[in-house]
Amino acid sequence: MASGNSSPRLIPTPASCERRSPSELRATLRAYSARLEISLAQTTAVVANSKSADELLRDELHKIRDLTQIVRNRKLKPEKGRRKDLRKLDCLIEDLNSAALNGHAD
Length: 106
Known about the structure:
68% of the residues lie in helices and 0% in strands. By secondary structure, it is mostly helical. The chain has a domain at 79-106. It is elongated, with a radius of gyration of 22 Å. The relative contact order is 0.11.
């Protein structure tokens, strides 16, 4: 440790961290979940109001087919509670939203 005029740093005690951490964690998870659900709802609304399959371009149909396969084949293990699964869901919803908005940009 350094000696001299340096003042000691305040380090939170484990007890103070334990009191705050669970409520902060729950609040963060609620906000994260709400953001994903809102994004998914926006995507659903765009898709519901989009063109029929007969009016879509070939590339748009292929993109929809590819995204549908990704949704069907996703491999998540929610019982494990892994960040990896949250990232997969987040990326999937982002890709769906992006595809829906880009395909509906006209």
